Amino acid sequence: MDRVPESHAGWTFLTNHSRVLAAIAENHTTRVRDIAARCRLTERAVQKIIADLEEGGYLTHSREGRSNVYRIAPDRVLRHPADAPATVAELLSILQRHEAGQPMGDLVGPDESAN
């Protein structure tokens, strides 16, 4: 039985779909259980998200022994029209730079309080 993780009140910047995709990008043979723990989701929710991503053409998987090996479609355009023409690869690049602690450039502009 899936254990329900600690709930989070309020809104967030990233969707659960993007979190799951980022977890798979980090480790293409990761288990659903490990994705669920990392993303603070139930295993059932992760399975549903993986099915959504596969149905949308963003992800495929194959069995190798007892493990699933996931393959991400990096050139797929993100679903929301406001995000076009950004691709999955571009989204994952941003998320991976954040995870690695690399600077994102001057995204916020000059600090007005310094004037």
UniProtKB/TrEMBL annotation:
Signal peptide: none annotated. Residues 16-64 form the HTH marR-type domain. SUPFAM superfamilies: Winged helix' DNA-binding domain. Gene3D superfamilies: Winged helix-like DNA-binding domain superfamily/Winged helix DNA-binding domain. Pfam families: MarR_2. This is Winged helix-turn-helix domain-containing protein. The lineage of its organism: Bacteria, Bacillati, Actinomycetota, Actinomycetes, Kitasatosporales.
